[in-house]
Structure formats: structure tokens, C-alpha cells
Amino acid sequence: MRFKLLMLAAAMLVALAYYFTLPSILHDLRSNPEIQMYLANPDLTFDVFSQCKKRVENADACYQAYSAAVQLSTTKNCSVEGIALTRRFKLLVGHSSAEVIESEISRDCFTAPK
After folding, report:
1. For the segment 37-70, what is each residue's pLDDT rounded down to a tens digit?
2. Does residue 102 share a domain with residue 89?
């Protein structure tokens, strides 16, 4: 009985610590200054990640460029520039054909919401 009580208390302590620390960990991951820099410079992101696909020299830079490229490929910006940027990064990070990517963009931008 004491063991069950001890395990329950330990599980509650872990859950409580997880509840309070996870949001700050996720915030730090999302607000990484290097990733933000890559998001602000799409051409640099494209160049760095394209190079990383060929040869990895700096794994940290490749990871950050990849993270930024994925975010840029999933934007819902339906302006002409936004669609071009989304298409460019979907082709870079995706494993889909151009037709599939075009249908995704068309579905996201040109279908009326219901």
C-alpha cells in the first residue's frame, strides 16, 4: 500500500513538473533566434538547406534551416508572393510531386470556406 501511494505521489510530481516546464520548452523551441533569422531570410534558408541536402557540414545550421523551411512551406499566405514561397519550400522539403503540391496550394488558397 505504501508503495502504491509513493508511486502515485511520484507520478503526480512528474505530471506537475511536466505541466509547468513543457510550455517554456516549447516556447524556447519556437522562438529560437537562429530559426527566426532563417524565417526572416527565406533565400538564405533555401540556400542553406539545399546545401545541407547535398552535404551536411554544420548539423545545427541544417536543423535550424530545415525547421524554418518546414514552417515556410506550411504558411497559409495566399498572396502571389506567399504562394510562390510556399511552392518553393514545399518542393524543397516535401517528397511530393509538383502536381500534389499544386493541388494542396489550390485547396488551401482557392477553395471557399464552408
Report:
1. 999 999 999 999 999 999 999 999 999 999 999 9
2. yes
State which residues form the domain around 64.
Answer: 32-114
Scanning 1-114, the segments in alpha helix (DSSP H) are: 2-30, 33-40, 42-54, 59-73, 80-93, 98-110
- CB 101, CB 90: distance < 8 Å: yes
Question: Quick one: 15 and 50 in the same domain?
Answer: no
Q: How many domains does the chain have?
A: 2
Query: Rounded to whole angstroms, how far apart are CA atoms 77 and 91?
Result: 16
Identify whether the C-beta of residue 69 lies closer than 8 Å to the C-beta of residue 39. Answer: no
Chain-centre distance of CA 28, in angstroms? Answer: 13
CB 48 within 8 A of CB 63: no
Q: Do 56 and 99 lie in a common domain?
A: yes
The C-alpha atoms of residue 72 and residue 107 are separated, in whole angstroms, by: 17
pTM of the model: 0.70
